[in-house]
Write a structure and sequence with these properties.
about 65% helix; mainly alpha; proton transmembrane transporter activity; 2 domains; 4 helices; extended; about 130 residues
Length: about 130
Amino acid sequence: MSKQIGLFEKLANAAGHIYRHHLTQHPRRKALWKDCWHKELKPPTLEEWPAVKKDFRQMMDVITSRSYTQWTVMDTLVRTCVAVEIICWFFVGEAIGRRSFAGYIVPANYVDKKLASMVKNHKDNTYDIAPKA
């Protein structure tokens, strides 16, 4: 009669296979991640700024000349996805910066000093209006 392998033994065997697979793949994946990190996430250098300015100028020319109406659907879809990605990264950075998804934490008794002085110096003249005869 064969011995039945238990659940934990199966999990341990699977974990061993996964570990050995990733052990052989780790150097290649690490090099790939490092290459992507250096190419995609570093800020532009001084030598790259002229190309950035040129691309921005081209984008503004496309908008002002309305030549985007000649784009294919695929071009439009790709450029829209890139724009949405940039906008989403902006909002993710904002959420990380304020450490909250809901918004900035403002005390309940906070009153803006400028607004408080405006209210204090405001003369309510709604009752000074003479009735129409």
